[in-house]
Design brief:
Strands 10, 11, 12, 13, 14 and 15 form a six-stranded antiparallel sheet that branches. Helices cover 36% and strands 24% of the residues. It is globular and about 60 Å long. Strand 2 and strand 3 form a beta hairpin.
Length: 366
């Protein structure tokens, strides 16, 4: 653990459909950051892009009640800022943040504007260190189409996909549907290409469901991909970079988690964030050689994409074959999130996990 007291800006919310999930990640992390080592500055980016920034840090005497009140205010729908908080348009937020001079920005933004390299570039321009991968790795991992094509070119197994780029608001999907039916078949997954948390994702079993699913996905992104439905064991595997006691850096590949659906047909938004909707088993119920193969795959993809700090790789196993689904560069930090579960299985509690992420980020230069 670091010796000096650090000023941590906990940045959450954001302009994506994952705004509420991000606020939950922010609240959980703000409550868990060690009061003896961190002053915290909870920051909410509204869906409009405006920033809510408190006038001062919460220090060592902060209470859970104060933190929860702050996040309750962030979640409230109001035009003005709550007492003790300034509302800044995005063009003024950078100046305000630089004046408050955080040692680290703990990024807990998910989806567009937070996980795609935009906020990372914003902070790099200001000279503020931040957690998680840099601009290029974030942008690449967020773009599922290009990321999976890259991985396929490096001989990783990925689901067969069809995709369309830059779709107009009122598209004609007839030709695309014919291509999907020929290449992918039913059932198939339909995904907005640059959105996380399974937002806008559907499964289609026939022509009419596919057409409706494409229209839904288009509401969230102008790029859409359709994957073959792979039946198998769904797993996810987290990777952490850590500064060891002697000052050297080491990479930790966490035990993989097996995701067992109880009600939903796939790991959708509700299943991810509603307790009891899934059974998440860590370590996964796999033979030792397959667990090692999963971990080796996660570590190699983490390095290939250029991730740093932490990320999580989602995969599905069918007949001993590992299909890579995606890389999450800012995994959720909610009470039901998978990265903290994998860390706990490795003997790393949640406050220590945050320390590991912060300490490595303080050391590195993007």
């Amino acid at each position: 653990m670091q010796s000096k007291r650090l000023r941590a800006a906990v940045i959450c919310g954001g302009i994506s459909p994952e705004h509420e999930v991000s606020l939950s990640s922010g609240r959980t992390s703000a409550l868990a950051l060690d009061r003896d080592h961190y002053d915290i500055l909870p920051i909410c980016i509204r869906k409009t892009g405006d920033w809510l920034i408190p006038v001062c840090y919460l220090g060592p005497d902060r209470t859970d009640e104060e933190i929860n009140k702050c996040f309750d205010e962030f979640q409230a729908s109001r035009e003005t800022a709550p007492e003790g908080v300034h509302l800044y348009p995005v063009e003024a937020a950078l100046i305000a943040l630089k004046v408050l001079s955080p040692d680290i920005a703990l990024l807990l933004l998910h989806g567009r504007g937070g996980e795609d390299g935009l906020i990372q570039g914003f902070l790099e321009f200001s000279g503020i260190r931040y957690t998680g991968p840099g601009v290029l790795a974030s942008a690449l991992a967020m773009d599922k189409i290009r990321c999976l094509r890259l991985l396929a070119n490096w001989n990783y197994q990925v689901p067969p996909i069809s995709y369309r780029l830059e779709i107009p608001e009122r598209p004609d999907f007839s030709g695309f549907i014919r291509n999907v039916e020929k290449k992918t078949g039913y059932p198939c997954f339909i995904k907005p290409a640059r959105v996380g948390s399974s937002v806008g994702m559907s499964i289609a079993h026939d022509h009419s469901e596919l057409e409706a699913a494409l229209l839904l996905a288009r509401k969230y992104d102008s790029q859409i991909m359709v994957e073959e439905f792979i039946r198998g064991v769904e797993v996810t595997c987290g990777v952490l970079d850590r500064v060891a006691g002697d000052g050297t850096e080491e990479r930790i590949v966490l035990p993989p988690t097996e995701i067992v659906l109880k009600k939903a047909a796939f790991f959708d938004y509700e299943s991810k964030y509603t307790p009891g909707m899934t059974e998440e088993i860590t370590p996964a119920r796999l033979p030792e050689d397959m667990i090692k193969k999963v971990q080796d795959t996660a570590g190699a993809i983490y390095q290939l994409i250029g991730c740093s700090g932490m990320s999580r790789i989602d995969m599905i196993i069918r007949n001993e074959e590992i299909f890579v689904l995606e890389c999450n560069t800012i995994p959720g930090m909610t009470p039901t999130s998978l990265l903290p579960q994998g860390a706990a299985a490795a003997g790393i509690g949640f406050p220590e996990l945050l320390d590991i992420i912060v300490n490595h980020s303080i050391r590195k230069q993007h």
